[in-house]
Amino acid sequence: LEANLASQNSSVAQEDFRAFHDLDDRFHRLLCYASGHPGAHRTVVQMKAQVDRLCRLSFGNVGETASLVEDHHTIFQSLLDGDVDRARRATRIHLTRLDKTIEEVFERHPSFFVD
After folding, report:
1. Cα separations in angstroms, 67 against 72, 95, 98
2. Which runs of consecutive H residues, i.e. helices, occur in the chain?
3. Contact between residue 12 and residue 65 where contact means Cβ atoms under 8 Å apart
């Protein structure tokens, strides 16, 4: 997980969003395995599939990607410290970032949201 986070930092610094996406997937998988619940990763993958479509449409936003990496660091450090409440709060913040992504994608690609 530490190596993954370091690589996430590098991918953001290099604006390599494809590498970040792969590292993000791996980070979530590693967390599930480290928690002793590897089966949870299947659920993450299913839920993340829809999110990934939106994220691919919004790639290129260094600030947002950097925020995701900061969230990952906070979640990881909270777990290392045994601070479950802080990890939960950080996870909620992490998940609510999707709201802004949806807004950005809607502004760039409004036709994707028409029925």
Report:
1. 9, 11, 12
2. 2-13, 17-34, 40-58, 62-81, 84-108
3. yes
